[in-house]
Amino acid sequence: MLNLFSRYRAYFSVFLLTLVGHALGFGRELATAYYLGATEIADGLIVGLLPLSLYLSVFGTAYAQAAVALIRNLDNVEQIRKTLAPIVIVGLVASAVTYLKADLIIGVIAPGLTPGARSISVALTSATGLCLMCVSLASWAKALRHLEGKFARASFADLLPNIGILLGIAVLYPRWQVNGIAFGAMAGYLAQFLLMVRPDFLKLTWRDVKSVFDRVNIGIYRNTFLAVLSYSVVYVEFVVDRYFASTAGDGTIATMNYAQKLMVQPLYAFFMTASIVVFPRLIKASDGGNIYSAANRLYKLTLLSSIVIFVCGVLFSHPIVSILLGYGALAGSTGEVAELLRIYMFAFIPMAFVLIASKVCYAMGNFRTPLYAGVGAAIVKICASALLFPIYSVKGLIAGTILAACVNSGVLIWGSRIAAVKVEKKETGPLSD
Asked: How far apart are CA 359 and CA 368, in angstroms?
């Protein structure tokens, strides 16, 4: 019994903290819905925060994932310090570009925004550009804490950016407008980084800076690039949906955003948490040659639990939306959000498998299978959205998301099983990196 408790204690502690973190993250949507509803101002705020989210995925999550996969243990202090220099350099460049070219970035992401919404988006993107260094440093430090097994501490630190942005929207925005939101985001990410980082990893020397192009770091860049491409379906979904929805009238982006965020809350709370906790164990299983059986157990649990959540989401979509969003400025639009949520839930099961199966691949050092899956899904998303949006409007965009998620999860599961068999047999092949 004690062994069983010890085995699952990490998961439940991280689950609770992650649940609170995503509740706070969803609090941003609740605050936006309550104060602004589905208006051009809400559209502007949602689009304005998108570049920050994309940067977090590209130069935060992807780079940290690639670095940890090669570092593998915290005894490799020298290599850990070398991975810090690229983050600092890229963060400085990205902050400058985002600050100076915010108007161009928003023009590409959402060209159909009204002038009022566009001005808000440009101002917010420019202001949050100063946060990018903090974002990438926080992601790097969090990945190292996961490798160390400090899941609870990392999950607690994840609360801070959401708290900062929530305070920025609810408290600072009425006084300082978009600068208040940007300040809250910057303070949150900086606090997250300071809470998680180990001081001995910050002793950056000129030698470390010069090593940004050594053989090991080039391998990290290569895997980061593959991971970025494998996540491309995520970026494409955000950009394509914002691109088309910006032409469908005021409030359309906000309505889609509220429904999508409701769908992903249980997805991240349960399956993202599970993927974080099991990743170090999957690395050990891969090194020990029993990754195939470990992956199969994960897939069975993922299928059963995701089906239960899917059914609940479809049956109770309207009460969920009414309870969570049926107040303030959005009170009259809950029916539209509930209808979109019901459709979004059909992407839930394949998205759950994407989170789990991608970790199985990364644990084996297999970055090619997620690449194939992500690029294929991105192509499906673009084509399906372009074909279906003129006919079914935003429902066509959601249908494209569902099809893309099915392609992504299918390729990941198939590829990870083939690669796992080859790892156990000490073989290599085109799907293993």
From this structure: 13
Give yes or no for a contact between 251 and 38, defined as CB atoms under 8 angstroms apart: yes
Question: DSSP class of residue 201?
Answer: G
- C-alpha dihedral (374, 270, 34, 114), degrees to nearest 10: 0
> For 397, what's the count of Cα atoms within 13 Å in the CB-facing half-sphere?
24
Residue 370 has pLDDT above 50, yes or no: yes
**Would 16 be classed as within a structural domain?**
no
pTM for the whole thing? 0.69
347 and 431 share a domain? yes
In a domain, 76, yes or no: yes
- In the block, which residue shows the tokens 């049926």? 326
Residues 239, 165: one domain?
no
- Residue 124's Cβ-side half-sphere holds a number of Cα atoms within 13 Å equal to 30
Burial 33-63 (b: 16+ CB within 10 A, else e): bbbbbbbbbbbbbbbbbbbbebbbbbbbbbb
Domain count, the chain: 2
Choosing from 169, 195, 230, the residue where a domain stops is 230
Check whether residue 343 and residue 319 sit in a common domain.
yes
Q: Are residues 289 and 427 in the same domain?
A: yes
111 and 210, same domain (yes or no): yes
C-alpha 133/C-alpha 122 separation (Å) is 19
Q: Report d(CA 240, CA 129) in Å as an integer.
A: 22
Interatomic CA distance for residues 196 and 179, integer angstroms:
26
220 and 329 share a domain? no
| Same domain (yes/no): 225, 239 | no
Site of tokens 């939101």: 181
Domain endpoint, select from 178, 196, 230: 230
Q: Tens digit of pLDDT for each residue in 101-126? A: 999 989 888 888 888 888 888 888 88
Q: What six digits make up the tokens of 183? A: 């300040």
Check: CB of residue 162 under 8 Å from CB of residue 188.
yes
Distance of alpha carbon 339 from alpha carbon 260, whole angstroms: 11
- Note the pLDDT tens digit of each residue in 264-322: 888 887 888 788 778 878 888 888 878 888 899 999 999 999 999 999 999 999 999 98
Whether 11 shows a pLDDT value over 60: the answer reads: no
Rounded to whole angstroms, the Cα distance separating 244 from 241 reads 5
- Tell me what pLDDT residue 427 has: 44
Q: Which two tokens stand for residue 409?
A: 């999860």
Q: How many CA atoms lie within 13 A of 323 on its CB side?
A: 6
pLDDT at 22: 63
Report the distance separating Cα 124 and Cα 177, nearest Å. 9
Domain interval for residue 226: 39-230
